[in-house]
Design brief:
- There is one protein chain.
- It is built from 16 helices and twelve strands.
- It is of the alpha+beta class.
- Helix 2 crosses helix 8.
- The protein is globular and about 55 Å long.
- The protein starts with 5 loop residues before the first strand and ends with a helix.
């Protein structure tokens, strides 16, 4: 039985609805997902599918799509002059300089060049839910490569590292700045710290359901227990939980760790990026043109030491056109999430995009269906 597609699209975006419906028709019967897009600050796609009770306001764990909110806060504070990208991190956070990290700049930190992807001993579940605990532990850690000389994805810690700089510079947590300057003013369904009153809107993340062939692919690619990838994703810790356990922890949702603890609807993801680059509901864009150009400029490109693959980052954000979707304009920026979510802004077309799904997608990272959705939305936006 084919699921019903709910929601609306603006005139000219009918092909997006058709692509979404065609994809859902091929998925498992229990598929849940949301797709939302804005063009020049106007919502033009607002679609979802799922069982009774699922709506455009349903919230899902979005894992590393959370990093987009964290890096937006950093961009706003740089724009204000509160933070300076080329100051040493130790200017804000003196303790960070231990073990040869003293020369690292804030720019290098947020572009995954610190070499501080995790701890030799790993983190406890309690620590991974708390950015201040992560930062405190990492300040004394010896980096895994000479800081600034290479880059590698700081999967579970980049938000905590940037967040500690924010806290030292402002006296406020990154989550507090995000709430006050981004989420609350726009009423975004994208939380870094989910209030208990909003818990009924959350749907727990479901584990990936790979076929036997897909399972073989995953097993063959599994990193060794002492590799940088295992340390970065904290899987080298005995008894480490599954991916979905992080988002399904109420403690994680309540504290909203800025690397991967966010909870959102597609409306919230797309709405945040729309607010970043466009006038929305009479409010001017959060980012000025020079700041938009700065965050979208490529800062780290080449061999990612954690992913062991070619990757591209802007100022903390993923360089979305180069990393994922070549149809997008140069300078597009955003971030995907391990469960399959994707969100970005394409300033050249005025497009802001958000996608969520409940069940983790194979093979991890942005779900493959985003490719067809992005092409359809971008084509309609031109």
């Amino acid at each position: 039985m084919t699921q019903e597609i709910h929601g609306t699209v603006a005139d000219g975006f009918e092909e997006v609805r058709a692509e979404f419906a065609a994809f859902v028709a091929t998925e498992r019967h229990d598929y849940e997902g949301q797709l939302c897009a804005y063009v020049d600050g106007r919502r033009v796609v607002d679609l979802w599918a799922g069982p009774d009770g699922v709506s455009a306001d349903t919230l899902y764990g979005v894992f590393s799509s959370t990093k987009g909110a964290a890096h937006l806060v950093v961009a706003l504070l740089v724009q204000d002059g509160t933070l300076e990208l080329d100051r040493k991190v130790t200017y804000y956070w003196p303790e960070f300089g231990a073990e040869g990290k003293g020369a690292l700049t804030l720019r290098e930190l947020v572009t995954h060049r610190a070499g501080l992807v995790g701890l030799d001993a790993g983190f406890t579940e309690e620590e991974l839910a708390d950015d201040r605990m992560i930062a405190e532990r990492l300040a004394d850690q010896r980096p895994f490569w000479r800081p600034g000389t290479a880059f590698g994805y700081h999967a579970l810690v980049i938000g905590a590292l940037a967040g500690e700089v924010v806290r030292r510079a402002t006296g406020r947590t990154l989550q507090e700045v995000y709430e006050e300057r981004v989420r609350a003013p726009y009423g975004l369904a994208f939380h870094l710290g989910l209030p208990a009153s909003e818990e009924p809107r959350f749907r727990s993340v479901q584990p990936m359901a790979p076929t036997p062939q897909q399972r073989a692919v995953l097993d063959a690619a599994r990193p060794g227990p002492h590799s940088l990838a295992s340390i970065a994703f904290n899987t080298h810790v005995p008894g480490a939980g599954e991916l979905e356990d992080h988002a399904n922890s109420r403690t994680v949702r309540a504290k909203g760790p800025a690397s991967a603890g966010g909870v959102a609807a597609a409306r919230g993801l797309a709405g945040m990026y729309a607010a970043a680059i466009s006038e929305v509901e009479g409010r001017p864009p959060l980012l000025k043109p020079d700041t938009v150009a700065e965050v979208g400029q490529i800062h780290s490109v080449g061999h990612d030491l954690v992913a062991r693959a070619h990757k591209t980052f802007g100022l903390g954000f993923q360089a979305t056109a180069e990393s994922w979707y070549p149809c997008l304009g140069a300078g597009a920026f955003g971030h995907s999430g391990a469960g399959g979510s994707q969100a970005f802004a394409d300033p050249r077309s005025g497009l802001a995009y958000g996608y969520t799904r409940r069940r983790c997608a194979f093979p991890g990272g942005a779900a493959p269906e985003n490719e067809r959705f992005v092409r359809a939305v971008h084509g309609a936006a031109l």
